[in-house]
Amino acid sequence: MANPSLPVAVIGAGPVGLAAAARLLAQGEEPVVFEQGETVGAGVLTWGHVRLFSPWRYVVDDAAADLLAASGWSAPDPEGFPTGRDLVDRYLTPLAALPALRDRIRLGVRVEGVARDGFDKMKSAGRDDAPFLLTVESAGGVTETVRVRAVIDASGTIRSPNPLGASGRAVPGEADAADRIVYGIPDLLGADRDRYAGRRVLVIGNGHSAFNALLDLGRLADEVPGTAITWAVRRPAQRLASLFGGGDADGLPARGLLGVQVRAMVDAGSLDLVSDFRATRIDPSPDGVVVSGDQAALPPVDEIIVATGFRPDLSLLSELRIALDPIVESPVALAPLIDPNLHSCGSVPPHGAEELRHPEADVYVVGMKSYGRAPTFLMLTGYEQVRSVAAAIAGDWVAARDVRLVLPETGVCSTNLFDAPASSCCGATVDEVAAATGAAACCGGGTPQVITLEPGVPATAAACCTPAAPQLIQLGAPR
Question: pLDDT class for 216, splitting at 50, 70, 90?
Fold first, then answer.
């Protein structure tokens, strides 16, 4: 083992990275946190306008909360739903400002690579006794090396979005059209409003990021005539019924409501939904950019939002002996536990340092990055990961192996966001949604009602009143 007097490096000062630092302190270890952004939570701020579907009680780490409580921190309402900006301003920033952490966090410092001091990947004898050597670049391009005894990589995936192409590669023309493409969820109702208002916008993707973008675009279209929305998904028409997620069966009602609201947009004809579409190229045209698929091209658009997920950038660990599943790109032992073909975010078994270990001793990839390409990560899972990892680094493998995270099958189900009696033909939580938002359930027939998830922000919810399969609007058909 490397010199125990050396610190433990934590790469990334997001929620999981700062939780790792708090857990290391609780174990008597010395953390040093490297964050390439100019503030803690820099990655979170890229989606700071987005409201989480998990309430506060599921996004604050226990060890971090203990440190904050000792400083007189006023905890947010545990049942409230933070935005990404709230998460940074009301939790991460106060946490990073605590005396226990503030001098252990280095901002504006990018970790370029990690290696064993004096050992390239091929050398074995004495390897585990050598410290890790981090090459870091700070402001002004100054490069230095830092020796540490262990490494926790919590750098996330937000800076490594998946490309538009269904094959996992960028399609021809994608790079040339970069000025028309945003990956992730732009701030459509705020900072980016002028870019999209009154424009023709194509959204590609079928996850919750796409849902958020579509809902914001729908509100923008209500406010600004001429805002037109096309939504392209890879799923074939015969599988569209499950496109919108768990709906009222979702253990996180706010997450399920996203799909309910997007389905209402489709059924109301507020957007063009194109199924079975796999992009193959992007071309400029006199009337906008044209995205083509295997069999047809979409009409020209002005802007493209690619919400196809993220992938890990593992290049900074390339000189270490990292064992990854060839499909999921997570640690080998973790992959079968999180494969999205087999698991939802709530059916993932508890796991920790044992499942996150690599052939290279004392290096761990945690948080969203540990899930590789699987999109089923919950923040609460990352907090249990780093609790276990911190115990392992401190040598307490009994505690490291004692993982106790419990996630019900459809997610974290024990929320009472919609805490109301249920007596609806559609099942309990449809009435719960209606009761919590002031809208009547429409199971008796009739027009779907308008419900409100946040004060002053209406959204149409078709709930169980929609047909068994969503309406597929043909491109170019009258609306």
Answer: very high
Quickly list DSSP for 413-471.
----TT------TT-HHHHHHHHHHT----TTSSPPPEEEEETTEEEE--GGGS-SS--
Identify the CATH number of the domain in which residue 355 sits: 3.50.50.60
Residue 452 lies in a domain: no
332 lies in a domain? yes
Token look-up 């052939």 returns: 359
For helices 428-437 and 253-267, give the axis angle rounded to 10 degrees. 90
Write the pLDDT tens digit of every residue in 126-143.
999 999 999 999 888 899
Give me the domain span that covers residue 33: 8-159+310-401
Kindly list the distances between the CA atom of residue 208 and the CA atoms of 65, 215, 243, 246, in Å, as whole numbers in the listed order.
28, 10, 11, 12
Q: 219-251 pLDDT, tens per residue? A: 999 999 999 999 999 887 767 766 666 555 555
Asked if the structure places residue 61 within a domain, the reply is yes
Radius of gyration for the alpha carbons in the chain, expressed in angstroms and rounded: 23
Residue 159: which pLDDT band, with cuts at 50, 70 and 90? very high
**Which has the minimum average pLDDT: 50-64, 152-166, 340-354, 372-386?**
340-354
Count CB-CB contacts under 10 A for residue 457.
11
Alpha-carbon span 405 to 383, nearest angstrom? 9
What are the two backbone dihedrals, phi and then psi, of residue 470, each rounded to the nearest 5 degrees? -65, 155
Q: How far apart are CA 212 and CA 53, in angstroms?
A: 11
Is 194 contained in some domain?
Answer: no
Q: How many domains does the chain have?
A: 1
CB 197 within 8 A of CB 227: yes
Asked if 402 and 396 touch (Cβ cutoff 8 Å), the reply is no
Answer yes or no: are the C-beta atoms of 382 and 366 closer than 8 Å: yes
On the 0-12 / 13-18 / 19+ scale of CB atoms within 10 A, 223 is: exposed
- CA-to-CA distance for 56 and 131, rounded, in angstroms? 38
Residue 283 pairs in a beta bridge with 290
Distance, CA of 202 to CA of 272 (rounded, Å): 9
- Looking at the DSSP bridge assignments, the partners of residue 114 are 134
pLDDT in tens, 91-133: 999 999 999 999 999 999 999 999 999 999 999 999 999 999 9
Identify the pLDDT of residue 405: 78
Q: Give the pairing of strands 31-35 and 8-11.
A: parallel
